[in-house]
């Protein structure tokens, strides 16, 4: 019944307009502002639910399509639509934003209206990124995302926030402008900015390689992949909790999504030619960044590096498909790789969000992110300790949690590609466990380390609600990933079929 | 010479403005100091009426009058309306500034209106002579305006520099025009174009003439390497004048380029394209890089202008009608952005305090969240970040250069725009992330506040609906 409704537009514009209202209402009555923001975010989440319930998983076609001319002279359209790849990410966005709003309830006392408005506007813009089927619309949303994030880190961030936020902005802007030129080039070739038209656009190999590199610059920075990841630890450390959550849970996914929506289908031959590059970068991220995470003193930095390592899995899963399909009898393997990458993205969205929120809980009480400032937290905060251990386990990929599903699928798929890929990828099970559990050991367990820890209060019902819901999501996805995998089945199969055909 | 009355209708806007300027000049003589606001009101009314007259007398067809000297076409109409409106905005922002500094004189407005008149004459020129007349009327008024604060040393110095260099550039332009006249035997653009197409490109005198014309043009645009005057003039002039120089003359410069290069010398496109490529690349590079080193916002915006000029040139050099549309869109949008940017500078300044240093913007978000947000929109728009209109302006010119197989030029453009983002972000950083050092509340009249808000929000509104202006530009250029 919802198929004809403009649900995507609603999900995009409700939070943006709501955010503008929240911004306009100002800080005079902070509580009313908070409730307004919460209601808007919950409404947006509810508005996005029909995207799942009325989604037809049997087809790979775009659904909930909305199409209207925007700038006719350049054939730019307001063209929205989703398939099985973008839909889960949209729901993830609307889901996580609700918790970001709740998490800011008492913590943000400085200009709360602007803070909440920034997140609401960002929510709409991020949904727009996932829902755009017009390349220029996509690009507008993609870049528009930077402005609220720039302000969030810069205004509400830590001591070194200005450095971090300018680095974040310039890095991402640098990556994306080259994508812009690639998009314009393809517009000139095809006469339209329709992404689906780009998919079927015939391109020579050298063109494809240049386009692939332009996309790679944009998406690799966003994911981020080694060696262009250095903005992420800075941004995460300095960002307020909500900013870190959105960065890790959703913005990084936009890079992964870009590979699936642009790089692979538009330049399949270049992707095939250069898959070794992405695979090596991904494996470096998994192994090397894992070790880097091990030595971090700062909890947020540790989780940031762990995010880079986990995103390495995503890109690995996406780009091993060419090696797999080259091997005999391995049709399902390629599917498994991409699905694994997708599941990993959604799962990492929950887990990293939860971990950053956990660090936020501690930071609000002690005002330190240093691991050494804690110890024996479980003695004073037993409930919180339980959640933290649970999410850490999920981060380490414990079976039964969502973290396991994605990693396992990708490792399984990489076995079909090459034993050594699988071997290196699987080291994460050890390294990941090492850095996460060691952190947990130092922070949560042991004797009460100091007076600060001794004075800790356990989590409030508000924090319990946030962490509990996320824990539920992690558990559900871990025990029963079926519904998630089903909705993307047809779209991924279609994508693999598409990239198996050379454009040359 | 005998005029038939109907033939004056196409130049009615200019005639009206000229009459009004003279009327204001005389009326102002009889006004007491405290009645000066009457001349201000007359200025605004005449500008708005000029817009109406352009609208009422416009036609879909180009009309050539005065024996081939003047043309009235849709492109000219659109540019004129933009010039009138943006100039009106500039006068509105300047009012409080001038009042504060005892510069609220009728002469300011008379000179300003003459400059506007000069621009519109350039816009409707159909021969080299008319272009030159308009250009000089504009330039002479601007020289005087720059030195308007006669007690300011910096202002006099800037005016002197502007005058000497400007005279040199005008000389170059005239020299080039004379060569072209020698080669083609005409000064009317259509005849010149026809003659050039017939005699071919290998006429040395013609190409030399073109070089000199392009030099004159580059000076008026402020394109590197003829940009030296821009930072000094922007810096030295009273901010109200900088605002005026920084906004509408860019539209006039675009018109100048369209008339000289496209109407007159289109057959030499291959020749001037190469020259404009060099000017554009150098402007984008030097403008963006040097802007980073500035600590004075007027100088910073001056270098930013230089880089924007590079982008406008990209659209013109493409030589396609979409390219001209893109360049026209860019120059109008840029004029609106510059208007807003300097408008904020004027808003912050007060008697004895010019708000010229970047540090003066510290903590603006705490002092006035609304105007900080407007400045934020303007800065992001100048930087070319969506969803502001500045992005679309850049996007359209990039599309134009990609469409003529100069993708490398687009890459150069985006590369320098990344560098450019840094100094715009720095303003945002100062406004939002730093604590204010100065807590004086902002005082501005309601008119300024409303105009600035409209100006800032336009960045967003036009960014969401760029087609509103773009389609007008496309229709105007398409009919050339």
Q: What is the gist of this entry?
A:
The complex is a heterodimer of chains A (504) and B (480). Chain A has helices at residues 7-25, 30-53, 86-103, 112-131, 135-144, 146-156, 161-190, 195-199, 205-222, 231-238, 241-266, 268-273, 275-294, 299-319, 321-326, 331-366, 377-380, 382-396, 402-417, 419-443, 451-454, 461-479, 482-500, and strands at residues 63-71, 76-82.
Can you offer a commentary on this structure?
- The complex is a heterodimer of chains A (504) and B (480).
- In chain A, strands 1-2 form a two-stranded antiparallel sheet.
- Chain A has 23 helices and two strands.
- Chain A is mostly helical.
- Chain A has helices at residues 7-25, 30-53, 86-103, 112-131, 135-144, 146-156, 161-190, 195-199, 205-222, 231-238, 241-266, 268-273, 275-294, 299-319, 321-326, 331-366, 377-380, 382-396, 402-417, 419-443, 451-454, 461-479, 482-500, and strands at 63-71, 76-82.
- Chain B has 480 residues and is mostly helical.
- Chain B has 20 helices and two strands.
- Chain B has helices at residues 12-29, 37-57, 74-100, 106-123, 128-146, 153-184, 189-199, 204-221, 229-236, 239-246, 248-264, 269-292, 297-318, 321-348, 364-367, 369-383, 389-403, 407-433, 446-464, 467-478; strands at residues 63-65, 70-72.
- Chain B has a two-stranded antiparallel ribbon.
- In chain B, a hairpin with a 4-residue loop joins strand 1 (63-65) and strand 2.
- The chains are: A mainly alpha (504), B mainly alpha (480).
- The A-B interface holds A 70-74, 114, 136, 139-141, 143-144, 146-147, 150-151, 154-155, 161-162, 165-166, 169-170, 173-174, 177-178, 180-181, 184-185, 187-188 and B 322, 325, 365, 369, 380, 385-387, 391-392, 395-396, 398-399, 402-403, 407, 410-411, 414-415, 417-418, 421-422, 425, 428-429, 432-433, 466-467, 470-471, 474.
């Amino acid at each position: 019944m919802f198929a004809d409704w403009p649900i995507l537009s609603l999900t995009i514009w409700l939070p943006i307009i709501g955010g503008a209202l929240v911004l306009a209402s100002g800080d005079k009555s902070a509580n009313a502002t908070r409730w307004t923001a919460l209601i808007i975010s919950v409404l947006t989440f509810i508005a996005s639910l029909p995207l799942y319930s009325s989604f037809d998983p049997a087809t790979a076609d775009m659904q909930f399509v909305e199409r209207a001319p925007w700038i006719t002279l350049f054939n730019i359209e307001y063209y929205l639509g989703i398939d099985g790849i973008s839909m889960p990410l949209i729901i993830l966005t609307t889901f996580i934003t609700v918790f970001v709003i709740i998490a800011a309830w008492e913590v943000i006392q400085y200009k709360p209206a602007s803070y909440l408005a920034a997140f609401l506007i960002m929510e709409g813009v991020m949904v727009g990124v996932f829902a755009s089927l017009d390349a220029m619309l996509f690009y507008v949303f993609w870049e528009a995302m930077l402005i609220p994030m720039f302000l969030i880190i810069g205004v509400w961030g830590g001591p070194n926030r200005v450095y971090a936020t300018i680095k974040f902005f310039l890095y991402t802007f640098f990556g994306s402008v080259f994508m812009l030129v690639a998009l314009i080039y393809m517009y000139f070739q095809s006469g339209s900015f329709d992404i689906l038209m780009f998919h079927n656009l015939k391109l020579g190999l050298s063109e494809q390689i240049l386009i692939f590199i332009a996309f790679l610059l944009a998406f690799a920075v966003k994911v981020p992949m080694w060696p262009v990841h250095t903005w992420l630890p800075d941004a995460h450390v300095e960002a307020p909790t909500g900013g870190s959550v959105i960065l890790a849970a959703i913005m990084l996914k936009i890079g992964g999504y870009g590979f699936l929506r642009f790089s692979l289908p538009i330049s399949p031959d270049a992707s095939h030619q250069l898959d070794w590059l992405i695979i090596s970068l991904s494996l470096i991220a998994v192994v090397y960044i894992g070790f880097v995470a091990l030595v971090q003193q700062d909890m947020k930095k540790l989780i940031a590096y762990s995010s880079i390592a986990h995103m390495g899995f995503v890109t690995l899963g996406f780009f091993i498909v060419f090696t797999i399909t080259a091997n005999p009898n391995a049709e399902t393997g390629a599917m498994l790789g991409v699905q694994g990458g997708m599941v990993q993205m959604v799962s990492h969205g929950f887990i990293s969000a939860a971990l950053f929120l956990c660090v936020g809980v501690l930071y609000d009480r002690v005002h330190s992110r240093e691991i050494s400032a804690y110890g024996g937290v479980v003695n004073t905060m037993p409930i919180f300790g339980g959640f933290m251990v649970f999410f850490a386990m999920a981060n380490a990929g414990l079976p039964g949690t969502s973290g396991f599903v994605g990693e396992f699928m990708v490792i399984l798929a990489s076995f079909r590609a090459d034993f050594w890929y699988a071997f290196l990828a699987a080291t994460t099970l050890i390294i990941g466990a090492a850095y996460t559990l060691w952190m947990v050991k130092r922070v949560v367990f042991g004797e009460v380390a100091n007076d600060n820890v001794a004075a800790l209060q356990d989590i409030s019902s508000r924090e319990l609600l946030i962490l509990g819901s996320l824990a539920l999501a992690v558990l559900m996805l871990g025990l029963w990933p079926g519904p998630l995998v089903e909705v993307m089945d047809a779209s991924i199969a279609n994508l693999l079929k598409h990239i198996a055909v050379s454009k040359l | 010479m005998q005029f038939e009355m109907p033939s004056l209708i196409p130049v009615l806007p200019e005639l009206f403005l000229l009459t009004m300027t003279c009327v204001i000049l005389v009326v102002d003589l009889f006004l007491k100091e405290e009645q000066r606001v009457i001349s201000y009101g007359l200025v605004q009314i005449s500008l708005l009426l000029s817009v109406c007259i352009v609208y009422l007398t416009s036609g879909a067809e180009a009309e050539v009058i005065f024996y081939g000297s003047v043309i009235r076409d849709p492109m000219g109409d659109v540019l004129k309306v933009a010039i009138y409106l943006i100039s009106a905005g500039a006068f509105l922002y300047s009012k409080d500034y001038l009042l504060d500094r005892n510069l609220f004189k009728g002469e300011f407005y008379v000179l300003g209106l003459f400059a506007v008149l000069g621009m519109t004459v350039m816009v409707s020129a159909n021969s080299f002579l008319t272009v030159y007349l308009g250009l000089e009327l504009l330039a002479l008024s601007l020289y005087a305006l720059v030195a308007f604060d006669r007690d300011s040393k910096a202002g006099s110095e800037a005016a002197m520099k502007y005058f000497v260099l400007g005279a040199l550039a005008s000389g170059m332009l005239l020299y080039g025009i004379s060569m072209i006249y020698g080669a083609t035997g005409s000064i009317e653009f259509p005849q010149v174009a026809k003659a050039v197409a017939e005699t071919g490109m290998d006429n040395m005198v013609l190409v030399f003439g073109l070089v000199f014309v392009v030099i004159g043009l580059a000076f008026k645009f402020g394109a590197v390497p003829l940009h030296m005057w821009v930072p000094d003039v922007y810096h030295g002039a009273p901010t109200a004048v900088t605002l005026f120089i920084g906004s509408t003359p860019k539209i006039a410069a675009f018109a100048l380029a369209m008339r000289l290069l496209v109407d007159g010398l289109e057959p030499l496109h291959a020749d001037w394209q190469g020259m404009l490529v060099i000017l554009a690349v150098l402007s984008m590079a030097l403008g963006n890089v040097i802007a980073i080193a500035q600590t004075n916002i007027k100088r910073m915006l001056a270098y930013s202008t230089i880089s924007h000029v590079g982008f406008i040139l990209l659209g013109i050099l493409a030589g396609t009608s979409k390219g001209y549309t893109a360049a026209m869109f860019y120059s109008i949008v840029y004029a609106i952005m510059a208007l807003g940017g300097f408008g904020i500078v004027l808003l912050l300044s007060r008697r004895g305090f010019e708000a010229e240093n970047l540090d003066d913007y510290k903590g603006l978000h705490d002092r006035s969240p609304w105007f900080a947000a407007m400045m934020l929109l303007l800065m992001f728009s100048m930087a070319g970040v969506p969803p502001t209109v500045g992005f679309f302006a850049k996007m359209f010119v990039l599309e134009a250069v990609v469409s003529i197989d100069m993708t490398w030029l687009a890459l150069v453009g985006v590369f320098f725009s990344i560098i450019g983002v840094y100094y715009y972000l720095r303003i945002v950083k100062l406004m939002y992330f730093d604590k204010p050092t100065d807590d004086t509340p902002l005082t501005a009249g309601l008119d300024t506040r409303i105009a600035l808000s409209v100006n800032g929000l336009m960045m967003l509104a036009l960014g969401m609906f760029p087609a509103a202006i773009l389609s007008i530009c496309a229709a105007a250029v398409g009919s050339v």
